Amino acid sequence: MLIWGLLNAKLEIISSAVAMLTVGLPIGLIVVALVFGDGGSRKLAELTKIVLTKEIPEAILQNLGSTSGDTSYNNPKVLPTLSDCIADYVLSATRTPLA
Fold first, then answer.
1. Any idea what DSSP says for residue 68?
2. What local confidence, expressed as pLDDT, does residue 66 receive?
3. Residue 93 has pLDDT above 80, yes or no
4. Domain co-membership, 31 together with 61
5. Measuring CA to CA, how many Å separate 10 from each of 3, 5, 22?
6. 81: left (phi over 0), alpha (psi -120 to 50) or beta
């Protein structure tokens, strides 16, 4: 994709290819190292569980804690339900208009 963009002088394609390479390549290498390293599949499953049950709900709560326009969310709660590498999230919060 990068080579095609360079040959055809397509700046959008070049920027997309560079973004994919700078983000995707390091993440892919980390996953390969975790999977094929000693106990890698177990480590990868543990890290995935941590991200799905802790990191993502915390990020959602941080976003809900900030005010958005004329509303604010009080007492937001995120309840994750984990099934292997898939998570469902139930969100509960009260919405109060700002005065």
1. B
2. 64
3. no
4. no
5. 10, 5, 19
6. beta
**Residue 22 shares a structural domain with residue 56:** no
Rounded Cα distance, 34 and 43, in Å: 7
Residue 2, CA atoms < 13 Å, CB-side half-sphere: 7
- The answer to whether residues 76 and 28 belong to one domain is no
86-97 and 71-83 beta bridge pairing? antiparallel
Range of the structural domain that residue 65 is part of: 40-99
**70 and 82, same domain (yes or no):** yes
For residue 99, pLDDT over 60 is answered with: no
H-run or E-run covering 83: strand 71-83
Question: What distance in Å separates the CA atoms of residue 35 and residue 91, rounded to the nearest whole number?
Answer: 32
Q: 5-40 pLDDT, tens per residue?
A: 777 888 888 788 888 778 787 888 887 877 777 777
CA 26 to each of CA 17, 30, 34, 81: distance values in angstroms, whole numbers, following the listed order: 14, 6, 12, 29
